[in-house]
Input
Amino acid sequence: MHDETLLLHTDVGEQPFRALTPAVHRASTIVFPTVEGFQSRHSQFYDGYSYGLYGHPASRNLAAHVAALESGARCLIVPSGMAAITVTNLALLHPGDHVLLPDAVYGPARAAAEGFLSAIGVTATFYDPRIGGGIAALLRPRTRLVWAESPASFTMEVQDLPAIAEAAHSGGAFVAVDGTWASPIGFKALRHGADIAVQALSKHIGGHSDLLLGSVTVASEDLFRRLKDVSRHLGLGASPDDCFLALRGLGTLAARLERQTASALKIAERLRGNPSVARVLYPLLSGDPGHDLWLRDFQGGSGVFSVALHPGHGRDLAAFLEQLRLFRIGASWGGLHSLVAPARLDGARTVTPWQELGPLVRFSIGLEHPDDLIEDVEEGLARYRRGREAAAE
Ligand SMILES: *Cc1c(COP(=O)(O)O)cnc(C)c1O
Output
């Protein structure tokens, strides 16, 4: 054999190798030992392996873990949380259909509903996230899908999912829930009436701010096949390396969430008494408008909460956030590092205008010691207050 051929065809044999960690197979092509196997490869599409785009051992492994965690039967892994949302929309909505979304929904999901869905003839309307069973009055004959996101990304409203689901189902609509805040460790949407549970795995499950993935979990095989067909037509595959990292993240998910939630609660309680703070938005706090629903439906929390500040000048907000020593300014959440993100809500909501006059700031608490984080935030809020006081003089 020539060197060129040797380079490609030196067979090292299949050595048995057992590791604690899952294997990562990078593959576009999947090979078949027989002609018959190749010709019938499409029958492997939903469960087996037919082409790298449609699944590989790491994505199947991750899907099985997420399905079990969500109390679902089948899970589809896609390249981002946003892809999970769009695949769900495209699997269930057709021209002429109507979809309902909470007014506090994740911003890019709102933009997709107002732009992309409207361009393909789907009407989107928004509802008060606290509507509960009152959503019955908003259902139309062509309402095919009701979205919930609980708690909401920035404003932390907890939704009465069982009541929403009951009303939606009696109107013939599916219910999809974006449960990224608590992850399935804290909230199992399928047990509370949802048909579809969506996660941005990029957040808590990835857990290290270094990957993008999403999941869509369902109880029904029929729904799974509809979702999987859409992801095939869109050509959405999930990287084996990212799936491996998400699998690694799963191992520490419960421990990270427990620690981040405990730290967040300590920090949130402390900030409640801060003179720069008008309101702390965190369902774990007693007295929070979502606290009772959170206690009723959730098994855990999250290190993500928001704070509404008393009104101040933009430059005071910059002095607060830019000089923090431990918190970095950035989107996303659920990683090891604490993050802070200022939000602009004016004009972002259409049916429940945001009432707080001051800026809203979201914190994602990482694994640093909570006392160091408290010191950092308190110093920042003192800078904010000094600016406000100087302006008032
Ligand atoms: C981040 C996020 C998404 C989107 O996830 P990506 O993987 O970043 O696309 C969707 N929903 C919520 C609530 C999120 O926080």
Q: What stands out?
A: Residues 253-392 form a domain with the Aspartate Aminotransferase, domain 1 fold (CATH 3.90.1150.10). DSSP finds twelve helices and twelve strands in the chain.
